[in-house]
Automatic annotation (TrEMBL):
<dbReference type="GO" id="GO:0070006">
    <property type="term" value="F:metalloaminopeptidase activity"/>
</dbReference>
<keyword id="KW-0031">Aminopeptidase</keyword>
<feature type="domain" description="Cytosol aminopeptidase">
    <location>
        <begin position="166"/>
        <end position="467"/>
    </location>
</feature>
<keyword id="KW-0645">Protease</keyword>
<keyword id="KW-0464">Manganese</keyword>
<dbReference type="GO" id="GO:0005737">
    <property type="term" value="C:cytoplasm"/>
</dbReference>
<dbReference type="GO" id="GO:0006508">
    <property type="term" value="P:proteolysis"/>
</dbReference>
<keyword id="KW-0378">Hydrolase</keyword>
<dbReference type="GO" id="GO:0030145">
    <property type="term" value="F:manganese ion binding"/>
</dbReference>
<dbReference type="InterPro" id="IPR000819">
    <property type="entry name" value="Peptidase_M17_C"/>
</dbReference>
<comment type="similarity">
    <text>Belongs to the peptidase M17 family.</text>
</comment>
<protein>
    <submittedName>
        <fullName>Putative cytosol aminopeptidase</fullName>
        <ecNumber>3.4.11.1</ecNumber>
    </submittedName>
</protein>
<dbReference type="InterPro" id="IPR043472">
    <property type="entry name" value="Macro_dom-like"/>
</dbReference>
<dbReference type="Pfam" id="PF00883">
    <property type="entry name" value="Peptidase_M17"/>
</dbReference>
<dbReference type="InterPro" id="IPR011356">
    <property type="entry name" value="Leucine_aapep/pepB"/>
</dbReference>
C-alpha cells in the first residue's frame, strides 16, 4: 500500500467518504468538477454516488457514512466496497479523507478496504483468474499528522484478522492440530517469538491428562502449543488461552445436528494465534504467553467414555458426564499449565464453548466471565471501541455446586438445560488456582457466522482487535 498526499492529476478510482449533512455535503475543494446535488446524495448511511470523468480517466465514488458512525460501521462500509464492487478497483485507488475523519476513522476505513479483499474460495478451480489485489495500489490522502503510521497499523490489523479468517474457514482435513502447530512455529520464527509444541509423549510427561483424553479417539496427534512474546521493555505480562478443537464430533455423545460447522470449534485458538501475530507485528511492549491446546474430538475404540474419571494437569480428577463438553477439558489443562509455569498478571481465554452463550446473546455479543471487575471493564471498553461486544454474566459461587461430583473432584457438565455457559465458566475457574485477574470469553456465537460478506458461515476474527486494544490500555 502506498501513501500519498498528491491528489492533482490522479487517474483511477477516487473514494470520497462523507458524513451525513442535511444541508448538503461540502464538496472536496481538490475536485471542483466532482459535484453532486443534495437531492441525489447527502451522506446518508450506506448510500453511494458515482461520477465518471472519462476525459480525466477518473471515477469518483461518494460514500455516505451517516451522522455519527462508529468504528465497526465505518469498517464495514469500506469492506463492502472491495467485497462487492471489486470491478471498480483497477490499478490505482485514492482514498481522500477530510478533516472530519480522525485517526480511528482512517484506521477503520483502510482495514475495511483490505478485509474486503478476502475470499472464501480457497479450493475453487476457477474458470477465470481471481483478482490480483497485489496489483492494486491504494493511496491515502489526509491531513492527519501520523497518517502513514495509521495506515501501516491498519494494514497489520487487517492482515492478522484475515489470517484468523483463514484458520477458521479452511476445512478440518487441512487445519489439523499439526497444521496449527506448524503455523505457530512459522509465525513465531518470523516475528521473533519463542514457540514450543508438545506432542502426545511430551504432553504425557507434562501430565496434561485431560487434554490427552479428549484427543485419544483421533488418529491426529494432539498438539499443545506454547507461544512466548517477550519484548525487552515490557511492564505487564498477559496470558492467553485459546480452545483449539479442530473438529468436534461430540465424541461418543455424538452431535445430532450442526456437525458440518464444527470446523469452527478452534475459533478460540484462531483468535489467540491471530492476536499473537498482531501483537508481535506491532511490537507492543507487553509480555504475552499464549497456550493453545489443539485436538480433534473424534470417535474410535480409544475414545474416552461418558462416566470415565480422568486426571488433569492440576492434579484434580474429573468425572466425564458428556464427551461433547470437551473444550473445557483441554482448557482446564491449558489454564493450569499457564498459571503454574508462567504466572501472568492477567489471563484471558477465548473459546467457542457453549450453545448456552448463543442462546443468551445470539450472534452479536460474546459472554464474559470474571470475578475481577476492573478486568471486566477493561475488556468491555476494548471490545466496544472496535465493535466486538462482550457482556458479563454472573460468576456467583452458588453455581459452583452444580459441578460437584460424587466420584471425582469435579464433573465436566451439570447435565441440566440451564446456566450452561455459567457452569462451564465455573468449571474453568476451578483450574485457575484462584488467579485474581482471569477472564473467560465464550465466543460460540461470534467466532463463526453469517454476514453480508459471504453466502455461507465463515470466520469473523472476533477478539483479535479486542485483545490489541486491551493490551494497549493496560
Amino acid at each position: 500500500m502506498q501513501l500519498t498526499t498528491q491528489v492533482d492529476h490522479f487517474n483511477g478510482l477516487i473514494i470520497l467518504p462523507f458524513l451525513e449533512n442535511e444541508n448538503a455535503i461540502q464538496s472536496r475543494s481538490e475536485f471542483p468538477r466532482a459535484q453532486v446535488s443534495s437531492e441525489l446524495f447527502s451522506g446518508v448511511k450506506d448510500s453511494q454516488f458515482l461520477i465518471e470523468r472519462t476525459e480525466e480517466n477518473q471515477v469518483f465514488l461518494f460514500i455516505g457514512l451517516g451522522k455519527d458512525p462508529d468504528y465497526k460501521s465505518i469498517k464495514n462500509a469500506f469492506r463492502r466496497l472491495t467485497a462487492k464492487q471489486e470491478k471498480l478497483f483497477k490499478e490505482h485507488v485514492l482514498l481522500v479523507l477530510s478533516e472530519d475523519f480522525g485517526e480511528q476513522a482512517m484506521e477503520a476505513a483502510v482495514s475495511g478496504l483490505l478485509l474486503g479483499t478476502y475470499r472464501l474460495g480457497h479450493f475453487k478451480s476457477l474458470e477465470k483468474t481471481q483478482k490480483d489485489w497485489e496489483k492494486v495500489k491504494l493511496g491515502v490522502s489526509s491531513s492527519i499528522p501520523k497518517a502513514e503510521e495509521i495506515v501501516r497499523r491498519a494494514e497489520k490489523i487487517a492482515a492478522a484478522q484475515m489470517e484468523t479468517f483463514k484458520l477458521v474457514d479452511l476445512p478440518p482435513n487441512t487445519v489439523t492440530p499439526q497444521y496449527l502447530a506448524e503455523w505457530a512455529q512459522s509465525t513465531g520464527k518470523s516475528l521473533g517469538m519463542e514457540v514450543k509444541v508438545f506432542g502426545r509423549k511430551k504432553a504425557e510427561k507434562e501430565k496434561l491428562h485431560a487434554f490427552l483424553a479428549v484427543g485419544q479417539g483421533s488418529q491426529k496427534e494432539p498438539q499443545f502449543i506454547v507461544m512466548e512474546y517477550r519484548p525487552k521493555q515490557a511492564l505487564k505480562h498477559v496470558g492467553l488461552v485459546g480452545k483449539g478443537v479442530t473438529f468436534d464430533t461430540g465424541g461418543l455423545n455424538i452431535k445430532t445436528q450442526g456437525m458440518v460447522h464444527m470446523k469452527c470449534d478452534m475459533g478460540g485458538a484462531a483468535t489467540v494465534l491471530g492476536a499473537m501475530q498482531l501483537i508481535a507485528d506491532l511490537g507492543l511492549q507487553v509480555q504475552v504467553t499464549a497456550i493453545v491446546p489443539c485436538v480433534e474430538n473424534a470417535i474410535d475404540k480409544q475414545a474416552y467414555l461418558p462416566s470415565d474419571v480422568i486426571q488433569s494437569h492440576s492434579g484434580k480428577t474429573i468425572e466425564v458426564i458428556d464427551t461433547d463438553a470437551e473444550g473445557r477439558l483441554i482448557l482446564a489443562d491449558a489454564l493450569s499449565y499457564l498459571v503454574k509455569n508462567y504466572r501472568p498478571e492477567h489471563i484471558v481465554d477465548f473459546a467457542t464453548l457453549t450453545g448456552s452463550a448463543v442462546g443468551t446473546f445470539g450472534y452479536e455479543c460474546a459472554a464474559l466471565f470474571s470475578q475481577n471487575e476492573e478486568l471486566i471493564q477493561k475488556l468491555r471498553k476494548s471490545g466496544d471501541a472496535v465493535g466486538e461486544r462482550i457482556w458479563p454474566l454472573p460468576m456467583w459461587d452458588l453455581y459452583k455446586s452444580e459441578m460437584d461430583s460424587e466420584i471425582a473432584d469435579i464433573k465436566n457438565y451439570h447435565g441440566k438445560p440451564y446456566a450452561g455457559a455459567i457452569t462451564a465458566a465455573k468449571f474453568l475457574e476451578y483450574f485457575t488456582d484462584g488467579h485474581a485477574s482471569w477472564a473467560h470469553v465464550d465466543i460460540a456465537g461470534t467466532a463463526f457466522g453469517d454476514s453480508e460478506f459471504a453466502k455461507t458461515k465463515h470466520g469473523t476474527a472476533f477478539g483479535v482487535h479486542l485483545l490489541l486494544k486491551f493490551m494497549e490500555n493496560l
